[in-house]
Amino acid sequence: MDSDIKKEKCAFCGEVVPRYSTIYVSVDERYHCSCLKCYNSRMADYSETDFEHVELDPIILKDFEDVDHKFHFTVRHLGDRVGIEAFEIKDGQRGGYEFSYIGDIEEEIFNLFAKLVERMLRGLHQKHIEWSETTNSWQITREDVVRGKISCDLESDEFYGHLPLIVIDGKEIKWEDFGQMLMTYEGFNFKLEIFDRSDEMP
Questions:
Q1: pTM of the model
Q2: Residue 20 neighbours by CB distance under 10 Å
Q3: Helix, strand or coil for residue 49?
Q4: Which domain holds residue 158?
Q5: Is there a single domain that holds both residue 41 and residue 135?
């Protein structure tokens, strides 16, 4: 629920904003919480670029199973570039499906938004895992390709270092469960390729 979204207070304008819409910046050798509106304004001044901060309203898109997914957005000034990120909210913070797109700072923001939505629609209609009633577990589909995001399993043993948490088709998969999926392919070879979060995976 949106009412469960965790929030923080911006140290510069005093506004209380969703945590996903903040960034910590270093000022006078101390880190302060800044809302993205203040951050983007400072970046525009620093880079001497003409940039107007935009708040994009959430949208709902359907996945390959016709399930609704509500996406929130952030827009971030990156100097000579601008980044837009789309993500779901799980347990009050970012989770589930996530997408991003980086474009030129001079490009119209809504053109970048349209390109991001196209990427989101393609991603939402890719199916990589399916539930097996036989094994009572997730299995890789017959395409034998998995695309996902590497996150952190904060519930794993911190003493030995947190394990990865793999997000596939918007679902959080424990590292052990992902390993169990791979056992279907025991004896096979595989290729692991890493992409930047703003790249679209072929």
A1: 0.90
A2: 19
A3: coil
A4: 129-185
A5: no
Exposed (0-12), middle (13-18) or buried (19+): which is 163, by Cβ within 10 Å?
A: middle
Domain match, 133 and 118 both? no
User: Which residues, 6+ apart, have CB-to-CB distance to 20 below 8 Å?
Assistant: 5, 72, 74, 87, 89, 93, 94
Q: What is the rounded distance in angstroms from the CA atom of residue 42 to the CA atom of residue 19?
A: 19
Tokens representing 164? 């990865």
Residues 74 and 140 in one domain: no
Summarised one tens digit per residue, pLDDT across range 138-167 is 999 989 999 999 999 988 887 778 899 999
Decide if pLDDT at 27 tops 90: no
Instruction: Please give the Cα distance from 100 to 77 (Å, whole number).
Output: 13
Q: Is 89 among the domain residues?
A: yes
